[in-house]
Amino acid sequence: xxxxxxxxxxxxxxxxxxxxxxxxxxxxxxxxxxxxxxxxxxxxxxxxxxxxxxxxxxxxxxxxxxxxxxxxxxxxxxxxxxxxxxxxxxxxxxxxxxxxxxxxxxxxxxxxxxxxxxxxxxxxxxxxxxxxxxxxxxxxxxxxxxxxxxxxxxxxxxxxxxxxxxxxxxxxxxxxxxxxxxxxxxxxxxxxxxxxxxxxxxxxxxxxxxxxxxxxxxxxxxxxxxxxxxxxxxxxx
Length: 237
Description:
This protein is α/β, with parallel strands linked by helices. Helix content is 30%, strand content 27%.
């Protein structure tokens, strides 16, 4: 039985005004992400793949088209409503980690809960629990500068997961990591997928994309093709 769509982009266009001529970042993109699936988005630099991820994550609004989350159009939400959707239903993982240097690890994780409906006494308990899940409990009181790159990315992952989101959106999450550490982060993502989490990941790395169930290739602001990981060739790591 085919899984139900959780996230859809329907005829999505994104145009950035600029002097002389507008920049068309996305041009009529259609994409369906099924519940519990792992989708990799690939494409050359400037193809529009990160723009697409930002639109799917309600970090930006399309110029035209629809973004459906569980059937609800979230494309036209105002800032407050979009923030609520991001906080309650989406988790974000970025290449640059985006940890706040002045805060401890556990405090960084708690920032995701600042605008949640969860009571404040629960914040520390949830943050410590997710740290234990990724085997970093001993780093709770450390600052980001005291972490390795792999540890920092795992903390960023913990922050993305602490509010138990429906979808994890990741933009080149292994791009700043060595191959061994990147493989470890990828294994955590695969475990999350196996537990029913929906993952949409932007990557330029064939080895990472091969672990997804479906690969969407973006070129010149359009979906050029969709294919299965085996079509990339090479061995699965």
